[in-house]
Specification:
The chain has a domain of 155 residues: Jelly Rolls, CATH 2.60.120. It contains one helix and 15 strands. The relative contact order is 0.09. The two termini are 71 Å apart. The structure holds calcium ion (CA) (4 copies).
Length: 328
């Protein structure tokens, strides 16, 4: 109540003074100085509440009294639950400070962090459990754990978990096993990177690597040391049983000696291979009509992979074969 009394006394004293002088800047009675303060300002009763008193521009209430804003925060003392503290008023943001900052009658309400249950203790939560200044038991301030029963799986995880989305980015990790062979020699690439020799036709080669959900390109660059035949065979599989093998859907570069821009990115999924031709199927492993017998020996038993090549007889000493496959 003290601020209201001070305001009233102040206003009364101004009224008393104004009776002494009421002169405008032209020396005569002011036509503007309605409050008779003798200051020639356009003082008006802003609230229009007919209380006969001037006040600050904030006096907009029809309450017939002079409103005050002691702390200058724009909220008058009738609305400001602490008119001596400019950080406390109905427009303030509630903070975790033990004070009712926004004058709604509750302390620290709606302040603090959003908390999440973290069932597997990896510091990332799943289910939101609301906002508060103090963390509920076992809660963490970061959500996004797409597997809250596995501490190896959370946003930012660098652990690879076969068949799972280990870093919660919507893509699963897959461990691939790739069997390949080339007559005579060659190299294997995946998504633009050479991953190693493709293996010779007698045994072949086995490579293991990790890839994530989405499209990937695999390429085989092979060549024949005798300029007679170059052919290739490959078999990729993942733990859910999906497999991709060489067949007549693969494509080969009809102009394999072309280098430079024409070959840029040939082993990436985004490469436009519409100008490449479909490979020719020479038959599956073990086909008596092909020259390789049961080879290559490292391939899994019963592999449905087929030997493929670009054309026969080979009149160039090199071939590029590629395919794009999509991991689930
Ligand atoms: Ca105030
Ligand atoms: Ca509050
Ligand atoms: Ca967790
Ligand atoms: Ca987890």
């Amino acid at each position: 109540m003290v601020p209201r009394l001070v305001g009233a006394i102040l206003s009364l004293s101004l009224v008393a003074c104004s009776a002494v002088s009421d002169v405008g800047t032209d020396g005569g009675p002011s036509t503007r100085d309605a409050d008779r303060h003798g200051d020639d300002r356009g003082d008006v009763d802003a609230a229009g509440d007919a209380d006969g008193r001037t006040s600050s521009p904030g006096d907009v209430e029809e309450d017939n009294r002079v409103d005050t804003d002691m702390d200058g925060d724009g909220w008058e003392e009738g609305d400001d639950c602490n008119d001596l503290d400019e950080t406390v008023n109905p427009g303030a943001l509630e903070q975790c400070n033990g004070v009712d900052d926004d004058c709604n009658g509750e302390i620290d309400d709606g302040a603090g962090e959003n908390w999440f249950v973290d069932a597997d203790g990896d510091s990332y939560g799943s289910e939101p459990i609301g906002q508060s200044c103090d963390p509920p038991d076992g809660a963490v301030p970061i959500g996004g754990d797409c597997a809250d029963d596995d501490p190896e799986i959370h946003p930012g995880s660098t652990v690879l978990v076969d068949g799972r989305d280990s870093n919660c980015n919507g893509r699963r990790d897959w461990h691939l096993t790739i069997y390949s062979a080339v007559d005579d020699v060659g190299e294997l690439c995946m998504d633009g990177e050479v991953i190693g020799p493709a293996g010779g036709w007698v045994e072949g080669a086995v490579h293991e690597l990790w890839l994530r959900t989405g499209p990937h390109a695999m390429g085989i660059h092979g060549w024949d040391t005798g300029h007679v035949i170059t052919a290739a065979i490959a078999h990729l599989e993942i733990s859910d049983g999906s497999m991709w093998v060489t067949d007549s859907t693969w494509r080969y570069d009809p102009d394999p000696d072309q280098s430079g821009v024409g070959k840029d990115g040939w082993c990436t999924a985004g490469f436009d291979d519409s100008g490449w031709d479909l490979a020719q199927d020479i038959g599956p492993i073990g086909d008596p009509n092909n020259p390789w017998g049961e080879s290559p020996s490292l391939f899994p038993e019963g592999s449905p992979a087929h030997w493929i090549w670009d054309h026969f007889p080979v009149d160039l000493n090199t071939q590029y074969l590629r395919t794009v496959f999509v991991l689930p």
